[in-house]
Amino acid sequence: MNNEVCEKTSLKDWLSSLPFSCAVFTLAMALAFPLYGWVGSSYFASRGLYGAVIAGLVCWIAGIVALMITGVSARLGSHAALNGILVSMLIRMGLPMATAILLSSQPAFADTGIFGLIVGYYLFALVVETPLSVVLNSTAHPVETKSSSKTDSVNNKLTGAS
């Protein structure tokens, strides 16, 4: 009976782990590539396929980094989890959008449809990554810190409590 409980707990922990979330995200992004590659090559010939590769890589890198920040910060406590979510949102949105703006203004990338491909891939990545981030945050076990009696006495003196 105890083995079943341990197996269920370890399976639950594994399914909500950072490596599993990154693997699911990577798999989803890889499975979506043929669609985006087809769209890019249909509208912009072979240059559109290069645009789809760049768009996929940029959105994948931003998503993986955001998942890593979310997963690590969620285990450090509620304040770190909130900060981690905010930083991961900045990276998740900022990297693809900055890349889209910078590359679409370059003559070599202007005719690859890079801006639209990045926006499309970004929206797909956002739909996949959001539930993974929620699972990482909801199953995190924050690190508990025990305050020493010396710290408690200092806090009591500062607040006026006995």
Q: What is the N-to-C order of secondary-structure elements (H for helix, E for strand)?
A: HHHHHH
Helix content: over 70%
Total number of β-strand segments?
0
Q: Distance between termini?
A: 49 Å
Rg over C-alpha atoms, rounded to the nearest angstrom: 22 Å
Largest sheet, described in full?
none
Overall geometry comes to: elongated
**Mean of pLDDT:** 83
How many domains make up the 3D coordinates?
Answer: 1
Uncertain ranges: none
Structural class: mainly alpha
Strand content: under 5%
Number of helices: 6
Written overview of the protein:
The chain is an all-alpha fold and 162 residues long. It has one domain. Helices cover 85% and strands 0% of the residues. It has six helices and no strands. Helix 3 packs antiparallel against helix 5. The protein starts with a helix and ends with a helix. The mean pLDDT is 83.
